[in-house]
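User: For a benchmark we're assembling, each entry needs the component sequences followed by a predicted structure for the full assembly. Here are entry 17's components. Please fill in the structure.
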Amino acid sequence: MTSEQSKSDISRARILDAAAKMFRQKGYAATTLIEIARAAGMQAGSLYYHFGSKDELLEEVLDIGMRRVHEAVEESQERLPADSSHRDRIRVAVEAHLTTLLKHDDYTSANIRIFGQVPEEVQQHHIRQRDAYAELWRHIFTKAQKSGALSSDVNLGVVRMLLMGALNWSVEWYRPGRTSIQAIADHMCLMLFNGVGIEEPAQSRENETVT
Amino acid sequence: MTSEQSKSDISRARILDAAAKMFRQKGYAATTLIEIARAAGMQAGSLYYHFGSKDELLEEVLDIGMRRVHEAVEESQERLPADSSHRDRIRVAVEAHLTTLLKHDDYTSANIRIFGQVPEEVQQHHIRQRDAYAELWRHIFTKAQKSGALSSDVNLGVVRMLLMGALNWSVEWYRPGRTSIQAIADHMCLMLFNGVGIEEPAQSRENETVT
DNA sequence: TCGTAAATCTAATGTACGTTCGAAACATGT
DNA sequence: ACATGTTTCGAACGTACATTAGATTTACGA
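Assistant: Structure for entry 17:
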């Protein structure tokens, strides 16, 4: 009881880490407590000293995952100078979301991957938290649009969902070592702000801007 | 044996429909054969007259789902006049993908939602099919870039994955009746080609183009 | 060194599920 | 009406799993 990290805390953390990792990989229903326990270095029965049930364990994984990405994006905004451009505000939010997702965070990616297939009762418990995170983004986007940084004649809700989708889906294809997280964020922002299309030189008017 | 649709074929289809629907909703492992059978109007044991195992049933659902979206996008290209712009080619591909996904197709959305959490052996069986679909998109994008319709200094692979993510993620949030599928496709293409950003009037140079 | 509480183990329990198989019901051609 | 093939039923089997509870070990203060 002397160290700030009691043995119980350490075991708890190991269990959560293992659970997040496996939930993310195989989904909730397909992951067995035996596997989680083994990955955490103990027997299945021992899990019940730390968690009341498999569902409870799941809920904590989901909670941690959402909290982490929420805090990361929130902090990205607070770290920014007060007079930053709205493009920069969105840019760092994108970077924060993506980095949390792809850099060692099994919790957040587990949340994103499995949430839709989790027992309905568990989903209900987390709707508030999800809404709060959505609200954070909605706020950033609305401010940007009102101040003229985003086109005023687009449906911001749709744009936001498409953006979140593009980012979230990266957990399905991103593999460390190929494309950097920064490069993905850059491409995302480029698409969002400027698009990657070029005036089609159909009849060809002026060809100065293109290399 | 007289009708072109034998009783067996009808039952088979009912089972597949039920399976696709439930796989999509609850995931593979969490869906029981008892539920599928009930939704198809029969007993669990009867499923085995039509399918060798739960995995086999899953594989057929996945196969149908991928085939449908592949064919839809392929046909969208063939239907187009040969001299169509590359923007139009991409636009109809986006529309085809999205429409297949969101309009009654539990098969395709089941595939997209659960593929990452399906037994590894089953995944292996479908990699070829997935690659073929990716190749279809890669081809469309590469042609567009080579002919100057897409910026030449972006990583096309990343752009393509971000686009697919934005589209695929719609199965997580789209609900019929709110935003039309067409509107989503339009927003996606607008983002892809032009972006939704507006020149920030930070120090304000020329304000002619903005309303 | 001892005693107590914390942490884990081990074995058992009940249940839900995938699967099997012979019997029953159904359809169809003669 | 019969016979044969098709389709579904219903009950049973084995297994894998979440969960429980008492025994056992470990950590640690007195």
